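Assess this one:
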Amino acid sequence: MLKSGKEYLEGLRDGRRVYLGNELVEDITTHEAFRNAANSFSLIYDMKAAPEHRDVMSYEHNGNQYSSYFLMPKTDQDLKKRMETHRRIAEWSHGLLGRSPDHVASFVTGLAMKPEMFEEIGKGYGSNIIKYYEHMRDNDIFACYTVLPPQGARKPELYEREGMTVPTLRVSDEDDSGVTLNGMKMLGTSAIFSNETWVGNLLPLGANQEKESITCAVPLNETGVSIWSRKSLEKYAVTEFDNPLSWRFDESDAMVVFENVKVPWEKVFVHDNPEMSRGIYVKSPSHSMGNHQSNIRFLEKLKLIVGIAHKIVEANGVGHIPAVQGILGELAAQQAALEAMIKGQLNEPESLVDGYININRRYMYAALHWCTTNYSRICDVIRDLMGGGPFQMPADISVIENSEMKNTFEKYWSVPGQSAIDRMKLYKLAWDLIGSEFAGRHLQYERFYAGPSFVVTNYSYLNAPWDTFGGLVDDILDSY
C-alpha cells in the first residue's frame, strides 16, 4: 500500500533512541538537526503517490497499489518502470539522498526473487525472506541497512590481545524464540529517518566468524537499539539561502548499537553461514538492483553539478573562451557517457532467476566504477571554474537586512546581467555542493559508496567475459 508523507512522519515518532552527542532526541520530525531532512523524505512519499506520478511509481498486485521499487521485473517494461521510479525520486533530491526508500527496498526485492537460495542456507529462511519482502511492500517500509563492522573491529585479534570485547555485532545467544544481538554496525546512512534496518554483511567473513554472519531485520525502535548520529550538518546551516543543500538534504549517517536485542526467527535470513552472509547479494539480483538505483541517483547529482558549472561560467562572463567551452564540453560528454551506461543496462538485460529479468550487471558495475573514480575529479573541475568567487561573498545574507549595506552590496558585487543577491545565491549553492562540510561528506560518501576502490574494480573483473576476450586472441593464434 502507498504511504503518505504524513503517515511516514508519524511513523518516525515511535520511541526510537537517537543520540546527537549526549542529547537524546525526543522527536526527529521537529528537532533542528533533522526536521528538514525528514520533510524531504516525506516529500518522496507524497510525490510518488500523487496522481501525476502514480501510474509510473506504483504497480497493481492483487487489487492493491504498491511502490514500483518493490516490483519484481518480468518484462522490459517492468525494468523501465523501476528505472523511471528511481530517476524521479533522485530528481526530487538532486541525487543528494543516497539512501532513499527505494535503495534497500531494491536489495530486498532482489533477494526475494530467489527464496530457494535461502532454503539451502536454513530450513524456513526462504519463507522468511518472502514474508519480510511482503511486509516491506505492504507497509511501504523505509529501511536502511547496517552491513559493515566498525573499522577497528575488522582485526578482532587486536581486541582479544588486550582482553577487550570485540564491538562488532554478533549473536550472543539463541533459543526457540530467536537470536539475541550485541554489538554495533555501520554505516547507518538514513537510519535516523528509516523504519527498520537490514542487518547483514557486505564484506567477506572468515570461516570462524559464524556468529557475526547473522542477517536479519530489526525495527529501529526495538528495545536495546540506539542510533548514534554523526554531527548534524542541517543544525549548523545558517539559512536556506546560505546553505540550501545542507538545509534540506543531510540524510545523516549513524552507528547503530544493539544491546541484548531480541530478533524472532521469522526475521532471520542467514545464520552461522559466513560465506552466504555476503553471498546472498551477488548470487541473486539483489546487488545489481540496489546499485542500479545508485547509478541513477548519481546521474541526477551529476546533472546538477554540470548545470552549476555552466551557470558559473555565465556569471563570470567567460563562456566565450575556447578553453572554458572545452571544459564544459568535457563535463557534458561525461554526463552523457554515464547516462548511456545506465540506459545500456536496460537495453541488454539478463536473467539471473527463471521467470524474471534483470539489468545488465556488467554495465551496472562499469557505471559504479565510473562514479566512484570520477566524482572527486569532476568536483575539482568545478572548483577551478569557481576560483575565488565563493570567498568574495559576505558571510551570510543578513547583509541585506541593513539598507545601507544592501545598497553597497548591490553596487560593488553585482555584474552585468546579474544582481549581487542572485550572484551570491549561485555561489552559496555551488559551495554547498562542492566545498562545504556537506560537500566534503558527499565526496567521501561517493568515493566509498560501494566499498574501497579495489572492491568496486573487482566487481568488473568478476563479471567480465574473459573467455570471449581470450577467444578472440585464440582465433588469431589458431589461424596461422
In short: The mean pLDDT is 94. The longest helix spans residues 286-316. Residues 210 and 272 are 4 Å apart (CA to CA). DSSP finds 18 helices and twelve strands in the chain.
